[in-house]
Amino acid sequence: MNEQETVTADRIKKAIAAVKAERPAYEALLDFYEVLFLAQEQTRGQLQLEPIQISNELLSVKQKEKFPLINRGDFKIAIKESVALLKKLCQLAAEANEVLAEAAPKIVHGLDHGALEASALFSELLGEGQEYFDKAAQELGIDSKVLAFFAYSGIRPSLSLCAEQLATYLDKETPWDKGYCPICGSAPALSILRGEGERSFLCSFCGHEWQTIRMYCPFCDNRDHNKLHYFFSEEEKDYRVDVCDECKKYIKTVDTRKMKRPVYPSIEQVSTLHLDMIAQQKGLESGIPIWLQM
Ligand SMILES: [Zn+2]
Ligand SMILES: [Zn+2]
Description:
294 residues, alpha/beta, FdhE-like fold, 2 domains, seven-stranded mixed sheet, 11 helices, 14% strand, globular, binds zinc ion
C-alpha cells in the first residue's frame, strides 16, 4: 500500500466507525461496504491507465456549450483488474451480505463458464444497456440491480482514476451550474454542503465532486424557489432531503458543517437509506441510477 492508499483507507475506516456509532442499525450493511470500499481503494492504487486526451479545440467547444468532457462510453476500463475486483467483491458479499450472497456465486460462475462476458458486461454498463442487464440477469437467475451493482463496483476504480485524470481539464474557478457531472454527464447521487455553505454534487457514476450553485433541481433544472423545498428530521439535522415540485424527484443532502466526524461521501449515500424510504413514501422518485440501487 502506498501512502495515499493508507491515508484513504484510514479515512474510510474512521468515517465508517463514526457512522456505525451514530446509527447502529447500519452496522451490518456498513461492515460490507467497508470491505468493498477498501478493496476498491486497493485496486485503484494498482491501476495504470493512459490518460484520456482532449485537444484544446474540443475543450473550448465543451466549455462554451457546457458539455461534459467525455461520454460515459469513453471511459477506459482496466478489464483484468476490474474482473478480479468483481470476483473478490462477490466472494466478500457471499460472506457478508444476505441479499447479495445468493447472486454472488452465480455471477462468478457465469464469468468463469462463459455465460457472462466481462467486457460486454462493463461496456453495457457504460452505455446504460438496461435490456442487456435484464436479459443477462434473467439468464443467471438474479436481480438486474444486483448484477449492475457488482459490475459497477468492479469498474469503479477505473472510473475514478479516469475522472481524476480528466479533472485537470476543468475550469476550477467557475462553479458548474448544471445538474450533470462536468466530467461524464451523469446525474448526482448526493448533494453536499461545505465550508460557507457552498453546495457540491457527487457524481453517481465517476465519483467526481463538483461545486455548483445553491438552489436548483439537478434533474430538471427547475430554478423556481417556490417549487423547491426540503425536509429533515429533528434527530438528524446534518441531513436533509431536497425536493423538486416540478419533477417530483429528490436528492439527499449532507451538511458537513454540522458534522464533527470525518466525512466520506459514498458512505453517506449508503448509510441514509432511511431517508430514501421516507422520500419514497411521500411519492417522490430517486434520481439514483440502477447500479446504486442496492
Ligand atoms: Zn461523473
Ligand atoms: Zn426537478
